[in-house]
Amino acid sequence: MAFFIGFIALLVGLDQLIKIWVRSYFQSGGTVELIPHLIDLTHQENEGISFSLLSDLPDLIRIPLLAGVSLLVVLILCIYLYRNWAKLVFGEKWGFSLIISGAVGNLIDRVLRQSVTDYMYFHFYDTGFFVNNLADDLISLGFVVMLYQTFVSKKR
Question: What is the pTM of this model?
């Protein structure tokens, strides 16, 4: 379990370092093309959740709601892992570790900044899709690992 705790801490630290770098060196809205017609490096602050949902709520409601729900999810996942660690298979441990890393990374932003720093703009030529960050990618990757573990690995 100690390895996974260190892994989580490393990923949270990397997420926060990238966000600090983006906030320091990119003005909000400025972009640099990383992969032509596919991914740009940019700087946007997301006050809501995915696709800026709930960002129009008053700060007095939005900030405690989003930070509180994020904290609750992290605590529930950590308690579940602590109680069930010995029963979990390797893929589940990796999946949960990735999800927790991303959730903690975004929780830190919500608590300290009242918004989440996003910086990877995914698009196809002029069609934009979304802007996200490493923490969002870790959550998504963790979910994919969990799906794989549940549906593919357990069939074998």
Answer: 0.88
What is the pairing mode between strands 116-124 and 39-46?
A: antiparallel
- Residue 93 binned pLDDT confidence (cut-offs 50, 70, 90): very high
**Per-residue DSSP letter, 34:** E
Where do the domains of the chain lie? 2-26+41-155
Mean per-residue pLDDT of the chain: 90
* Given the residues 56, 109, 118, 126, the one annotated as active site: 118
Higher pLDDT, 114 or 13: 13
Phi, psi of 117 (to 5 degrees): -80, 120
**Is-catalytic flag, 59?**
no
Mark whether 118 is an active-site residue: yes
Instruction: Return the H-helix or E-strand segment holding 46.
Output: strand 39-46
